[in-house]
Amino acid sequence: MTVTATSRPTGHPGYSQTLPREPQSAAVARKLVRTALILWGLESLIDNATLVVTELVSNAVDHSRLPSIRVIVSRPSETAVRMGVVDRSKAIPMLRTDSNGDQVRGRGLVLVDALTEQWGTELYRWGKQVWAELEERA
Fold first, then answer.
1. What superfamily does domain 13-95+105-135 belong to in CATH?
2. Given CB 3.0 to 4.6 Å as the disulfide criterion, which of 18, 32, 88, 103 pairs with 66?
3. Are the C-beta atoms of 121 and 128 separated by less than 8 Å?
4. What's the confidence (pLDDT) of residue 3?
């Protein structure tokens, strides 16, 4: 799959791509985020950003109801990146604060919360976007 990108200094959206709602789409989303961050000169955010977008895609894969999702990567400021995953579900993701027993899954938003400046959900009439922002520190 080819990702076509043009550099924009800031703005919305910087890059976006519709992907199948399947676990393998996380790899494509990571590539999209990595490409945007390199073009914007924000390489220091790559490790955390790729982990965060993986968790956002994983949640959409698990909880959405249609066969596709949309990944959006934008640059709200010179030092920040915002990643969002749009799906057709209106179910709002919840941050789990319990230990969740021995379950391996279900703690992705704890990672998102720990690694980002802020994250949230925008509800639409037909679904939602779960987004997260990271900022480069001087």
1. Histidine kinase-like ATPase, C-terminal domain (3.30.565.10)
2. 88
3. yes
4. 47
